[in-house]
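Could you help me review a protein record that somebody else here produced? What it holds is a sequence and that sequence's fold in token form. I have pasted the whole thing underneath without changing anything:
=====
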Amino acid sequence: MAGSFLILFGMLSFRDLSFVRIAKKVYPGIAIRTEAQGFDASKIEDDITTPIERVIAQVGGVRKMTSVSEDGTSLIQVQLEEGVDLKFKSLEFREKIDTILSLFPREVHKPQVYRYDPSNSPLMVVSFSKENVNEDELREIVEKSFKKSLESIDGVSQVIVAGGKIREILISCDAKQMEAYSLSLRDIVNKFQDINQNDSLGKIIEINDSLALQVREKLSQMVRIKDIPLKVDEKGRPIYLKDLATVSYAPRDDHIGARLNAKEKVSAFIYKNDNSDATFIANQVRLVLQSKNQAKILVEYNQDESLIIRETIFSLVRLTLISYFLLFVYFFRNKSLPLFFVTFLFSFVSILLCFAFIYRILKEPVSLSGIYGLLLASILWFLLRIREVSFRDHQLKFQERTAFRNLVLGIFLCLLFTFLFPYTVFLFFANLAFPLLFGFILLDFYFPILFANVTSKIQIPIPETPYGKEKWMYLSGLILAKGKQIFTKTKTSILSHKLLFPVSVLFLSTLSVYTVLHHDFYDNIQSDERETVAILEFPSGTSFDHTSKVTLDVEKKLLAFSGVKQVVSKIDPAHSLLLITLQDGIFPDRQFLQDLKSGVGSTDDAFLFFLSDTDSAYFQEIVFDLVGYDQKELEELTQKITEAVKNLDGVNEAVLRYKQSREELELLPKQESFMISSMTLPLFGDELRLALQGGVATKFIDREKEIDIRVRYSEKYRNSKNEFNNIRIKNIRNKFVPISELVETKQDKIPLKYYHKNRSRVLSFAVKLEGNSTRLRNEVIMFVKSTALPEGYHIEVEDANEGTNNVSIAILFILYPIFFFLFVSLIEERKLRFLHLMLVYVLPYYFTFFLLQYIFLGPFSLPFQIGMLLSLPICFLLFHFRLGKAVYTNYFFCLTYVLFLIFLDTTVMSFMHIWASLTIYFLMISAAHFLKGTWERQYEDSLENFLWESVLKVKRYVNERRIFLKKKG
């Protein structure tokens, strides 16, 4: 009954499942943004950033805290420890900040606390085009027609429309004319805000009816704006806006750009929430764009992650069908196969539905690792259970089933060991291991139930003799003959001398351990990817024009590179996102990305990196943080160090990762002059900000589109120091006072931004090396750290590859089989000698690493690591039940891998790499068992005893030589 309910609920839950390729860990980041218009960078740092950092530091779980203080804005980014509850921490941060809000000036807005992920990339990128419509107009159409509808889709977190320029209405005022009419910029702003509204005045009630009174003064025509009366002069004549200002359309200063293959495009970048269903969102996006496209705009989908997910699902179906077909062929000569196979298929469908219900309850998406676990569970269960099942008179009988206990212990040991590995490895393995174990349990549970209630009712005939036994044996003989011939030659040569095989074992073991120690281990799945994401990071404060120019140059170089199919870019000031699609058959592995970046070459003042955990290991870009307290001295020291580093051999370039201080005009208020002139500092600052930056007075409705109306002085009053000194500010007595009477001006270098790291001021620079030599990296780090610094200053090296040390992971892989089989030797009922296990399981395990590197080349990516972790419990289990000694089992693994390569695409290449690890290790164990047994029979000796006695002989010889040399000396 319980099983039926699970299947029923699974059927109801199946359609609601969401699927992701890789279960990504949530980046433990929280950002705190505070707006304070009119505050300079120094005041932002002292009054806002530092107090917030002080209270945030009191909260536990903070791993790293960085901040940027600039004019009008404070941005603090907090990286928390892994596993911290982000919602709870966000609430805790808000509570701490609330305790200091009363200390902030009134102009400061309440800080915004929100989650952030620096590696977040869009789910979809959609570009738009239309003949005879320029990009500015096209962007307005897209903003009006699509953006709000796209943002309302369930699961969409953000929609960014980029490309083109948003227009605004610019009112450029003549300062002299305004003074002649005794008007200030604030007067004009207030006038617009007063008139551009519709007011309800009430109702006139008659006997049988009532009339509503409304004043409709909202601006709706461009030509009306310049005719707005501002005041009446002394002679009673109205003063219009056109008398002292020009009104025109102009692009807004803030800008965001987009390009497709180095060509300007209007594009929408659509982001999703963490646990949202990508396929559902993509379908809804397409429906919205189709239904709302009244203007007949051409819509192109440049990137759609859901298409890759769909391809992956189809590949998983093919993967399952191929696996089960081979299982059927492999056991074709087993006369129990028809009943067993049909019942097995029903059971597998049942556990799929059960897992659909479980994932629905947990509100977790199904990932590749989970599907891999279920598939491996079904294959392993099939291989083990078909030997233990018999059907007599349509009655199911099982032999003693002890395999599950061994499997649980093996997987549990692996899972415990993966706690020592990087979090990405542990997460993938855990997501695979639990479906593997529970899939095995559910198959044991459902198989007898479904046989009794479904399969036995079908009356599938059981033949007296196996199907096509003669043909099968003939075909098998042909396949095995060649393999046996090759293996016999190897056996004859390696066993020709008693010492040859033991010496070969020791040599290959030493070589294999050396290979493991010098292997690169990467915690990502490069083999399944068809694209890569690159980031161009500029110093904070870099203009949009400069960012766009450098990014365009990088795009052209990327497109000229062989293997790159498409480049989509999103450009913000000081930051660019590049989505790079690769040609079919090209993977973003270590060598490709290294060549790609080498082909790009110099990126001016930008810092180019790829969103990969191993980026620093690829390209040897070392980031240094100089920590101190005086901004001017920090800049001088940083520039001095970078100039010295550039002269080192092997250094390509050194790039500053901050915006340098620049010459600015500093205003020093004359307090007495302010009092005499009846001028207040807030009034002075407000009027001056409107004069230079302008201010949005109100909104204008143009064909159902809202357009900002910005008021500021004409450009001629803002393009030189002399013109600036001639600006006159209206005081509280409606008199105009020259700026030169109110402030003194001083030209000095002023920091544009203040950077903090863990509450201390910091400036960063990156050193780019030629090649990837560890020795060169260490030399550069030692050189930089040896620089003489004043007291209170120190240099920190940013470890971008933290937690993925190759040597530590290699040591874990060396120790893993030793501890595993040490545990097995202690708990196994048949007391297995540890040295025997070392020879037939551990040494082949190390040699598998050597063969994998030799066959596949390149780094040891996540699928290979998972395959090697799984290979111990699975292969030991198969050999424990003597399946490994059957020649047909070896060919099953090999033939399965060959068919995977032929019929599957790259979307499930990670499973093929896991299967390759299992296959090679399985073959190595088979060879070790066979060669060890043959050697012992041929030379009538135990290999363990022979090796142990050899070690003792060497030890005695060394002792004798030491005694001899001691006497002689």
